[in-house]
Write a structure and sequence with these properties.
Helix content is 28%, strand content 28%. It is α/β, with parallel strands linked by helices. Helix 2 crosses helix 3, helix 2 (31-47) crosses helix 5 and helix 9 (244-252) packs across helix 10.
Length: 493
C-alpha cells in the first residue's frame, strides 16, 4: 500500500475531521475524536507488548468501543482475529491457539472452566470517553513506512467441520472497500445503519471500514424491529444492509404508525438467499425495494443484484463489481458454457488467498486463481449470473450461519454418541433452529447432550431438538449409517 490502512480510513479528503463519524445511542464522536481514541488505545496495547504482526483477538459486540479497537489494531499493524462474542471457551481457545493470539479484547467478560487457562490475557476495552480523556497516543512508535502488516483473520462457516481462519491482507481489504464504494456509491451525506455483526467480513467491510474511508457516518442501531424502524426515521438513515432474517422480521412486525423510510435510498440484503417474493412484500410495506449483495468470507464481496431473474430462474441476476471476475465451473474445474449450471467461482483483488494452516482445505476451495463459493448457478449469454442455491450444507439460524458438520463433530465428542446427523428445524412461528438425530451406545438424555454442546458451542449452534435412533452397518470403509426409519426412534426437546 502507498500509505498505511489507518491513514487511508481517516483520510481528511473523504470528510473533514470535525464531521461526525459514529453514532452509538446518545454518544456521537467526530472523525478527529475517533482517531484520538484509537491512538490512545493503540498506545496502551503497545505498552502491553503488542507489536506489528502480533495477533490481537476481538470478542466485542457492535459498539463505539469495537470501532475504536479495530482502528487501534490497524494503527499498530497487528493481525486482527475476529470472533463471535457469543463463542464459548473451547471455541475461543481453538481460534486463539491457531492464530497465535497475544491478547483478547473484550467488554468485561470473564471466563471460567477448563479452557480458561489456555486463553491469552483478556483485556477490557475502556469506554471511549476514558480513552479520549487519556491523551492521543503520542508515545507510539512511528509507522513502518509504506509497509502495512495488517492482516484481518475471519472465521469461515466451517462447512466441512470446524471453522477455518481466512486471512485478508491490508491490500485485499482495501480492494473490498473499493468494491463497496463503487458498487453502492457511498458519500459524505450518507448515514449507514450498522446492524450487521462487525466481526464478520461483510459487516466490518460494508458498515465500518467503507464508511470511514468514504466519510460516511455509521450509526450503531439495535436490531429489534421497532427500535430499528424508529432509528431509521429519526437519524435519517440512507443505507441499511441486513440479512433476510431481519428484513422478514420487519415485514412481519405490526407498527402502530407507518414507518418513515423516506431517507432510505438502499436496503441491501445479503448473507443468505433473498426470495423475490420477500423483496416484493418489503416494497409493498415500506415503499423501497430490496437489492442483493453477494459474497463469501473467502471471496470477499463479489457481485450485486437489483432485480430478480424472473423466468430465467428463482434467484437474482448478478452484476460483478468492477475488477471482479465471476464464472461457472464443472467438477473438474473447467469453465462451462453459458446457460449451463455449474459451481460459482470468483477471482479478483478482493479475494482471500487461502485458509490459515489448512493446505488441504485451501486446495479444495482455491483453484487456479479462483475461489469456489459453494453456490451453484449459471451465466447468461449477456454476461449476467443467476444464482440457484448452495451446493454445501449450511443452516441459517436467526441470520447466523451454522455448519451441520461442526455441530455433528461436537456431539460425537460425547462418549455415549456413536453417530450424529444435524439438520434445520422450524418452530410454529417459522423461526429456524438446529435439530439432531443421534445414535448412542449408552443411556444419555437430550438435556445431557445439550449441556455438552452448551459448554463448547455458541448458544445458537446448540440443537433445540434431539431425536434418538439406532445405527445400521454399511461398508467396512464407511462410518456407521443412521437408521432414519427406526420405528423405535424417540424424540426429546
Amino acid at each position: 500500500m502507498k500509505s498505511s490502512l489507518f491513514a487511508h480510513l481517516l483520510d481528511p479528503v473523504a470528510a473533514p475531521h470535525s464531521s461526525p463519524a459514529v453514532f452509538d445511542g446518545e454518544r456521537v464522536v467526530s472523525r478527529a475524536e475517533l482517531s484520538r481514541a484509537a491512538e490512545s488505545l493503540a498506545a496502551r496495547l503497545a505498552g502491553l507488548g503488542l507489536a506489528p504482526g502480533d495477533t490481537l483477538a476481538f470478542l466485542l459486540p457492535n459498539s463505539l468501543e469495537m470501532v475504536v479497537a479495530v482502528l487501534a489494531g490497524v494503527r499498530l499493524q497487528a493481525r486482527l482475529l475476529f470472533m463471535d462474542p457469543a463463542y464459548k471457551g473451547a471455541e475461543i481457545s481453538r481460534c486463539c491457539e491457531e492464530a497465535e493470539a497475544r491478547l483478547i479484547l473484550s467488554n468485561g467478560r470473564t471466563f471460567a472452566g477448563p479452557d480458561a487457562d489456555r486463553l491469552p490475557p483478556v483485556i477490557t476495552v475502556p469506554p471511549a470517553e476514558e480513552l479520549l480523556a487519556a491523551g492521543d497516543g503520542a508515545g507510539l512508535r512511528p509507522s513502518a513506512g509504506t509497509v502495512d502488516h495488517t492482516v484481518f483473520l475471519f472465521l469461515s462457516s466451517g462447512t466441512t467441520g470446524l471453522p477455518k481462519l481466512v486471512p485478508y491482507t491490508a491490500d485485499q481489504m482495501a480492494a473490498v472497500i473499493g468494491c463497496f464504494r463503487s458498487g453502492w456509491q457511498y458519500g459524505a451525506a450518507d448515514r449507514m445503519a450498522a446492524v450487521l455483526p462487525l466481526f464478520h467480513l461483510w459487516g466490518l467491510g460494508q458498515c465500518l471500514l467503507t464508511p470511514l474511508a468514504s466519510g460516511t457516518c455509521m450509526h450503531l442501531i439495535p436490531t429489534a424491529p421497532r427500535q430499528l424502524v424508529a432509528a431509521v426515521a429519526s437519524q435519517g438513515i440512507t443505507m441499511l444492509p441486513a440479512p433476510p432474517f431481519l428484513f422478514r422480521l420487519l415485514i412481519e412486525t405490526e407498527f402502530s404508525t407507518p414507518p418513515d423510510f423516506s431517507a432510505l435510498r438502499l436496503a441491501i440484503s445479503g448473507g443468505s438467499a433473498l426470495t423475490p417474493a420477500m423483496a416484493e412484500r418489503f416494497r409493498g410495506k415500506f415503499g423501497i425495494g430490496l437489492v442483493q449483495s453477494y459474497g463469501t468470507t473467502e471471496c470477499g464481496t463479489a457481485a450485486q443484484a437489483f432485480r430478480p431473474a424472473g423466468e430465467r430462474g428463482p434467484g437474482w441476476l448478478w452484476h460483478p463489481y468492477p475488477g471482479v471476475q465471476v464464472t461457472t465451473l464443472d467438477g473438474s474445474g473447467r469453465e462451462v458454457p453459458p446457460e449451463v449450471i455449474g459451481s460459482i467461482a470468483v477471482r479478483g483483488p478482493a479475494c482471500a488467498g487461502g485458509y490459515l494452516h489448512s493446505p488441504e482445505a485451501t486446495a479444495a476451495v482455491f483453484r487456479n486463481g479462483y475461489v469456489l463459493t459453494g453456490d451453484t448457478g449459471f451465466r447468461g449469454t449477456d454476461g449476467q449470473f443467476c444464482l440457484l442455491g448452495r451446493d454445501r450444507p449450511m443452516l441459517d439460524i436467526a441470520g447466523k450461519k451454522v455448519a451441520p458438520a461442526e455441530v455433528e463433530a461436537c456431539l460425537r465428542q460425547h462418549p455415549a454418541v456413536i453417530e450424529a446427523q444435524v439438520s434445520g428445524g422450524c418452530n410454529a412461528e417459522g423461526h429456524g433452529h438446529v435439530r439432531a438425530l443421534v445414535a448412542a451406545s449408552a443411556a444419555v438424555t437430550a438435556r445431557e447432550l445439550r449441556d455438552h454442546c452448551l459448554l463448547r458451542l455458541a448458544d445458537y449452534k446448540v440443537p433445540r431438538e434431539i431425536e434418538f435412533t439406532s445405527v445400521a452397518a454399511s461398508g467396512p470403509l464407511d462410518k456407521p449409517r443412521l437408521n432414519t426409519r427406526d420405528d423405535n426412534a424417540r424424540s426429546e426437546s
